Fold this protein.
Amino acid sequence: MTGAEVLLAEIGEQPGVLERIRGDGSIAELAARLAAEPPTLVRLAAHGSSDNAATYGIYAFGRLAGRTALRDSISMPVYDGVRLGARGELAIALSQSGETPDVVTWLRAMGEAGATTVAITNVPGSPLARAASAVVSLGAGEERSVAATKTYTAELAVLARLAAHAGGRGAALDDALGATIELAGEAIASLPAVVEPVAEALAWAERLMVTARGPEFATAREIALKLTELCRLGGVAMTATDLAHGPIAALDERFPVWISAARDGSLEAVREAVERIAASGAPIVAAGPGAATLGARHAIELPPAPDPLLSPLLSVLPGQLFAAALARAKRLDAGAPRNLRKVTLAR
Amino acid sequence: MTGAEVLLAEIGEQPGVLERIRGDGSIAELAARLAAEPPTLVRLAAHGSSDNAATYGIYAFGRLAGRTALRDSISMPVYDGVRLGARGELAIALSQSGETPDVVTWLRAMGEAGATTVAITNVPGSPLARAASAVVSLGAGEERSVAATKTYTAELAVLARLAAHAGGRGAALDDALGATIELAGEAIASLPAVVEPVAEALAWAERLMVTARGPEFATAREIALKLTELCRLGGVAMTATDLAHGPIAALDERFPVWISAARDGSLEAVREAVERIAASGAPIVAAGPGAATLGARHAIELPPAPDPLLSPLLSVLPGQLFAAALARAKRLDAGAPRNLRKVTLAR
């Protein structure tokens, strides 16, 4: 198998991984413990794709469990000895490998401060898992590709289920998750034919803006990262409002914009941004259930998720497949980026 | 005056603006009220450069006042009706113009939830100021350039003073701030001659990675934004660890990396990242008090700030001047980006 084949195979494994997470009783059990004593604050720590999943966690805990979640500073406890964690808080560390040293150190510091510590990882025997008071295994199987795909969506599903079950909405979310997984399988089958011509048309791109609002901002960050990693371009993630606030000035016909458009309360704000972006001449790719209505040059329509908070499980799929296709259009091997070891021991 | 001349003039006004903030007694008074009843949580909300200042606020409140601060979701209260604010919390909104509607709506929602609300703005009579229970005026004078410079560093200084005075370290910080302002004046005078040859050497860049760790991550975000806005390139900000985690794979001789290197606990981690980046062939610009020791192709040495937490007031200066010089090298008018109104009314 070439690297690109491994990447595409792992993208295709996502529905199976999500189905396993949907049936994982230990997540509901852990959530029940959280519901019994709701955390005063939810701290999330991670790097890379897992940090993008943490962005999603802010919306999942806010909307499904009514809890404030934040992406915590890792450097303050690790490098500066600042101790901000406290009893009553929930500290969640996310890492595919469970080996990134500063995330392990962060979780230990949170445990010492009295917080409930949870590791979400693909390697249940890893140092991160050993540092946690509770472990949720992603069970995604070995991720051989250096670009994370199945572990990213697995982390989203774990966070959504944890938050929903903690907030007393577990059964409804699990039903919606089941239907979403079916839609994901259909999308993975049908999307390659849709994204490939877009990738061919944009093979020259050296920079690309990815924009969205609300929970889809996690998607924007993850797609920008996939494009940067796999296609050697400057992928910049920005909310639609931040884009309109300044960087819209930078757009021109050589600076494409990918818009992740959910059909939610933010669609009108996204529509206004699209109108201003279009005036710059930038090629626009709109992907999502709101895509066809936006008048973008390239529209990648997706079915709406049964629960809007599960939409990021679908909206990242065209981005993953587009990044793979764009790497191929650029004659790069998407599965084997240079300079990269799979497990990062960098501090 | 051309747009570029306006931009450079505003960069030059920064020491004067910072000196005024250093002497603003109302900041210490507001901080004294916070010290009397320390907030359980500090929420920050902003867009664009002000959001990068909010990143700095996380470190300022964490390290100087021992308080957890977070960049709050604006979309949850504004678009989804999610109410997470609470009595006992401090909500700080940052906006140059004080007119961005969703930030105003966010601050109102926080006030309704019982939080203490503070507006940090350059326009004391703005809607944001009217929505707040306390206002800190940046007093930076009209910012005519579309790219924020003097209001960004003004926001950093306000956040540092608020946090330090709330944490009982106000006098020491104000002393250090005075010395830092002197260093800033010297840097603004001497840096143009240093950054211009670097800009000439990198005039071809279409993408650029900006990396740092700790409080300097605010600097990395702000420099990436300035480069994206002014030079029409894909400027990607990433912590040194996130870079090593994956996107280092994307680097090559056409993907320069700007490193903001403080002389603090993270310097060794930055040094490890630099070694791996250098192996990719990417041109490296290192700026800061640690720069000369890193073996980068381009080193922009800065004096260390008397307090490491004030280092971002200095380290952003070469980035601002480099962005202006790179725009000139690219034959763009740095002061007049297309498509951009100064005041963003986008939602």
Q: What stands out?
A: Chain A touches chain B through 76 residues (CB under 8 Å). The CA atoms of residues 20 and 139 of chain A lie 8 Å apart.
